[in-house]
Amino acid sequence: MTAAQPRRDPLVSMRGITKRFPGVTANENVDLVLRPGEVHVLLGENGAGKSTLVGMLAGLQQPDAGTISIGGRSERIDSPGRALAFGIGTVFQHSMLVPSLSVLDNLALGGSWWRKPDRAGLVARLREMCRDIGIEVDPDVVVGSLSLGERQQVEILRALLRGSQVLILDEATAMLTPKGAEDLGVLMRRLVARGLGVVLITHKLNEAVTYGDRISVLRLGRNVGEIGPTALASLDRKSATDEIVRLMFGVDSRSTTEEASDRRDAHAINTSNPPPVSEEQPESPSPLWRGVRGEGRDALTDAFLCPPTQVFQPSPLTPLHKGEGNSFHASEICAACSAALSVEHLSVDDPLMPLADISLRVAPGEILGIAGIDGNGQKQFAEALAGQRPVRAGTIRLDGHQVGQLDVAARHALGLRYVTDDRLGEGTVAAFPLAINLVLKEIGARPFWVGGWQRSATIDTHARKLVADFDIRTPDIQTPIGKLSGGNIQRALLARELEGPARVVIFAKPTSGLDAQNAQATRRRIRDAAASGVAALLISTDLEELLAVCDRIAVMRQGRIVGVVLNDGMARQCVGEMMSGA
Length: 582
Known about the structure:
It is a single chain. The protein is an alpha/beta fold and 582 residues long. The protein folds into two domains: 12-249, P-loop containing nucleotide triphosphate hydrolases (Rossmann fold, 3-Layer(aba) Sandwich), CATH 3.40.50.300; 263-268 and 286-415 and 501-580, P-loop containing nucleotide triphosphate hydrolases (Rossmann fold). The strands form five sheets. Strands 11-23-22-14-21-20-17 form a seven-stranded mixed β-sheet, with helices on both faces. Strands 6-7-8-3-9-10 form a six-stranded mixed β-sheet, with helices on both faces. The longest helix is centred in the N-terminal third of the chain and has 16 residues, at 178-193. The chain is globular. Residues 255-293 are annotated as: Disordered. It comes from Lichenifustis flavocetrariae. Belongs to the ABC transporter superfamily.
């Protein structure tokens, strides 16, 4: 949130934009005005029409009605090349660079096919641009050796070198470290200081308030409000966030980053009015979580969700390691716990990201976060635990029993569950009815199949119960699951994996791509599961989410667990440093 900017003529004006697809109106009479010298944040829940709107600006599709004016003239943007010609560049969430080529080669791609690139001239322009915006990029380095944040800088440079005056950043911080996100914020400020207009699409309300000069909110494909620079400058962070959430959902917000009350599970102690303690039941820690989850709690005096007689306490034998803040070796964490999940020296072969010597424990009722930049082995780790990937070495134990030799179905039946981040590709069969998807991991098994015959009535009864229990919003249980919204598909996955005797649940980026309301509901389900005694492993690239939910946070980098920290006041700094390799 920055100081109010003087009014300037728009770079781009979108007026009365309407876009329809079969059976749905993605945008209806939407206005969006982009001005020089502003970071214009575009917010809205899933399905609000954000991507469709900026897709028309980027030339990916055309409006059915309305006008787009550039520099005061009405124009038709009928291709991405045309958008670039009008000075509109787009940086997508996933890098579009070629990893095997150098920075310079990537910058030269997309030029005139009939003319050899002027490499010396391009290097000179690159160095001048880097000086102007205050970053350093080696033109000869191979892109594959760069961090995600550095690759993003290269993509921004590519857009600028092509003359972009409007820069669209699509979920730009989703895969960055905290330091990378901070660097991007600094870079955006430098760009708008040079007169560029930046469109930032994000699900993170904190980022909207931090970086935005102007915030537009879409709901159900329509404009529902805009908070301009003057209004933003007059609001504190809490008030600005409350207003954004009111516009997005029509309800008041408690907080963008989850208030303390949302960081407690059902078993948290009320210190202002503690429950009475009887003589027969002496005061002792609960076997479930006894304190407040989240950044700032006194984690060093809290137990790690162990049975009361096996409370883990740091001691001189398990000191904080110098130079690692409050980081412990994975083998030292919960050494006295009766672990629900125990992983010892796990190694997995993979051509892209092998896993090496991973050890950790998760206790009943604990939420252990796995932080790290996407692509550092998180998916391989989750799939190995779930039985979808062979293990080269090491052991996986569920409640003390080895399960490494069991297949997916057997692990699922024993209570080891996996909520994949690939909801439609891996987690469900899009063309199958919701009811069948809710029993997808139990096909052929009782009570839903008997003697090879499908018991449709039993499946339907089961599906209706889960639809009610997990608030899955669907026209009918026979509706193909692929026709549901992302939030409802995620609820279906949660319902399937949390139903029955779940003991350990692996949540892989469970709120990725969800709007704030569905993300909050998903986090609440995870807390509720932990409160019931489930051991939860939460894999996420969103550090704010991990800080809000987890008891401890492990950091994965290059296929290894490089540290585990208590979620206390030092967690943010320690995790950020370990993610970046500092």
